[in-house]
Amino acid sequence: MLPFSLPWKNKDRTPVDKSPQALIPRITSFWLLIINVAVLTPLYDELTPWTLAICAICFVWRIGIFLGKVAKPPRLLVSILAMASAATLLLITGQLGTLSALINLLILGYALKYIEMRQRRDVKTIILVGYFLVALAFIDNQSILNTLLLAVVTIINTGGLVSLYQGKTRPLDPLLGSASITLLSLPLAGLLFLVLPRFSPLWMVPDTDSATTGLSDSVRPGDISNLTRSAELAFRVTFQGPVPSNDRLYWRALVMDSYDGKEWRQNPRVKALQNNAPNIPNQRPRPMGGSYGYQVIAEPSGTHWLFSLDLGYSESRGVVNMSNSRLFALRRIEQQFGYDVTSYPNAIRDPMLSALERHTNLTLPPDINPRARAYGQQLREAFPDPAQRMQAVMERFAQEPFYYTLKPPRIGSNQVDDFLFDNRSGFCVHYASAMVVVARASGLPARMVNGYQGGEYNAAAGYMSVYQYMAHAWVEVWIPSEGWVTFDPTAMVAPERVLDGFDAVFKPEDSYLLDNPLSSLRLKNWPLLNELRMQLASLDYYWSVWVLGFNANKQRQLFRELLGQASTERIGLFMLGGIICVLMLIAWYTGLLSLPKRRDKLQRKYHKLLHALKRLGVNLNISDGPRTVAHKVSRFNPNWQESITSLANEFEQLEFNPALTDRQRKEMRKHCLQQIERLLILVTLQRTTPTLMGELPLKQGK
């Protein structure tokens, strides 16, 4: 008992509208409690603390209403909460982003409507908004596991609507009815998925935030080593031919050519080209020479960066071929994004370099890293040939005591000098940064490339997975007549990193598993569990390729395989036939269309006996029941009276007595079949030897 009385507590607790049509059934109130938790759980990562608190209060209050402990709150209180919630969201929109703020606003409206609903029409509103929230959760995460979870949530949400019309039922009946409705809708949904035109999604509204995961357009020494703590998937690749060896898997994402002594950035001129990318679809021509193709499925990252092997070229919709040999997405990658790439590994990248590009890739900040500058000048004098000059730098990393580590020591304002001549320990960015500075100091244009190196190949499904912890940095130096040439100083210090992958150098427990105790990558060390992990990953990959990646090209290919020609007439006939099949299935399920049922063995034997007796001369009609049949057979041959009467009695018991146990029913069926078999033998003999069989009674079985 509360020590005070709530001003809005109402002992009557009756709805405003007392008509039976307006009352909310108690079973619906029960299901609404489950629906509230089910709908909001997939969106937990979108909830602000304020939104979560309001939702929790509304849920607890609704439990009190269901148990009859409190009354519904007055509308004035709900209105005040709504205005306060909206004002709070307006104040923190800049921190959340517009999209997240709107999602929280919808969730708050859902929670407040949930607490103040009074009639059936309010329940329908709640369920309708629930469908919108499920759709938002699906747009945010379209993996196969999340899709299955949201399918269950949809069934539960529909169950609340079903409970409004079922009356007094068992608690699980609305769920079973909802599941049946959902299963019936799947064939039609699948048909519409196949035949409807494929348009670009209208709901892909990019948030105002920057990259959510993965590489950034600026990098400092240590930034990429932080990515090695992430076990998130970056992208998947399917090769059309042989899979390249691990040491050839340099996935280009970003080119860094501006250095201020502390961090590397993209050149402002390149950023301007990116901003103008929609107006310049392709900034370089298709390369020539030998090539191989593959498809990439990039995971959501909140950025525009795409991945390819050198020299990559793509004609996929929404992809721009940038002038610095990389690929760029016109829209932020907020969902899985698939695109096709053709790589030309022997193509020369930029055989001629403009004066502006040469100046950009030779520029070094003044008055820092004097020892690295001096070393570059020495190399220029000792090795006039550019290729030999860069080879000398690579050999220095291989021959002198340099160390590859995820935890390098601190460096001062002269970052390259401290690394190159003092501590000599670092990660890939340290080595790449040092080599670019030395190359520029020696008079050669150079730049840093960020991306990923290596991949985990799934032989059973035929695709490769690239994770965030495989992030890498390497160097490109422009050499006359050869264009941009790739150098990876990391390969000289830790060659196994490039040849065998990240795990060959670092322990997973000290890197990408350190902050991910529940990551499935922990199963790598157990062969059977690792095989199960790969199989589950394959299912998610097939889902990405054939469902999420079902674009207009795949739709046309499917129609050509099914129909021979993807004409409008044939597609229309295909769709019409599919709809007819779906409607027939629904009609059969609802009982409007019935198929003839096959009789069981006892029924078939009994009707066979009746047919034999009729051929023998017994005057039987189609409407005769078992007792009438027994009476007519007894009159035809009195010697069969006891047997046919016993059969009729047992047959009627089986058909019309629900009190029989399963054991009794089984024994009686067996005895009936034996009786019928004996009568059939007798009828057959009666037709062949009528004088003899007419004098013999039928011997009864036990």
Automatic annotation (TrEMBL):
KW Transmembrane (keyword) present: yes
Domain Transglutaminase-like: 420-491
Keyword list, A-Z: Membrane, Transmembrane, Transmembrane helix
TM region positions: 23-44, 50-68, 75-92, 122-139, 145-164, 176-196, 571-595
Record carries keyword Nucleotide-binding: no
Record InterPro entries: Bact_TGase-like (IPR052901), Papain-like_cys_pep_sf (IPR038765), TgpA_N (IPR021878), Transglutaminase-like (IPR002931)
Pfam hit, one: TgpA_N
Gene3D superfamilies associated with the record: 3.10.620.30
Protein name: DUF3488 and transglutaminase-like domain-containing protein
Phylogenetic classification of the source organism: Bacteria, Pseudomonadati, Pseudomonadota, Gammaproteobacteria, Alteromonadales
